[in-house]
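From the shared-data thread, chain only:
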Amino acid sequence: MRLPTYRFKPRYGPEWGSGGIFGLKYHRGTLYFTLAFEAEAYFIKDGAVRVYDYGLVGPGPRSGGDTYNAVEAVDNKIYFGGWVHAPASYKVMDNYVEVDFRNKYSHMHSYDVDDDRVSLMWKESAGLENEWVGEVSSITFDPLNTRLLISRADGSRSLGVYAVGLGGNRLELLSDKPSLKGALVGDMACFDISMGIDGISGIQCLDLVRGRWNLRYLPSDLKDISVDGWEVVRPLMVGSMASAYGRLFIFVRGGVIIWDPTEDVGNDLSFVRLYDFNYKDYGPLRTNHLVVGGGILIPFNSYVHGILRPIKPELKSVARVVNYVPTSSYLIYVTPPSAKVVASLGARVTSIEHVGSKLLIAANTAANLGSYDATPFDVGERDLISVDIDTVLSNRPSSDVIKVLGKDVGNRAWGGIPLNNYKEARMYVNASKSNVLKVCEYDLGLPPSTLSADALGIDVGRNYVDLSNYAGIVSFKLLEEDPKAVIYLLLRN
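Structure, as tokens:
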């Protein structure tokens, strides 16, 4: 489709760092998305652009919108949610800007594609300077009870899973356990149990027929369900949740948790490490997935969160870790038993959608920043591009480099790099001491399984490791810590 609006430079929108283009949804000839932090909802039809400024929430100037892709389409309506400052308010301190949350509202809107009409369904605010009610982070349609199921976890209060009728204006609390994302699995609506910065702790599923909740908590030590058998560093923040092959795929920082509801407890959960760089926020965060050709297309982002002003001493080490960019952002295509890289992109992909044979990709050059990095305007360069889906799924990705520092990974497991779409893969380890590099190869089958496990000797100086014998997904672990080590993976096509 023709995109008359596709590039957005920094503009007024008080918040932390940069938002992006979120909620891409093509429905009955209309393309919708929200531009955050400007609090603008776009509706594009037949080349014409309509912009809604969230004026139904409150007076301007406004900021915010959506940063989790909370959107759903049912019949002639597009339902979209998120959060909005109305009006936006901030305070200039001596060396930073502070956002005031007294006018921050969580919201639900609907857009009638036939009548070109936006309606406010619901809004809520805590009215407090330093607290806010849970943002709407996902919307799941319940086709049996003809209602929308709402996830809310990012906030200080009013968290959990809620329900609202398609024409309703009041939310009903169904579960008080915070949730960021939801998906249908059979006749169940499943949601994560989110524990804030501690990530996901379990799965909560609502039986839509009987109205009963079933809970499944993750083991306290996630290496018990990790395919490579190694430790998993928390937090495992949830990015997107997909239903396919009769399973639930929960994409998190560090990989994907797969739940098979047909298996007995103890055999029903698996963790497949994908692009895990320990404490770095690299991963499928603040984005969405698509089902394309029966497979799952999911972005893994390199620069989701960041800190530019580590004013407090304890933030300096955190800033160094989260600001470090180990590799590009990737589009990963999951078709069990394989996961393959199909595209290499910039800082982060905030939303994807397909329109016929075209794939729409919304991207951003900047991150959602830390608490002392608020500005009166969005600092990112955001754009919307259109590419052929056939090209994306059939072509090999560009050659790439992955750089890992020994001081960041220590002797913990890292990696989870899919190699099966590259012609050549090699590793260089610049070591300051003799060591052993453990390599585990596995697949993303249903269930996933380990293919091989090797231990390779590492000498002082430059070491070359040929990875051409591996065709699956590979993760790594140094036997001993080497803070001075620098590791490069060269992936070529």
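The two ends are 31 Å apart (CA to CA).
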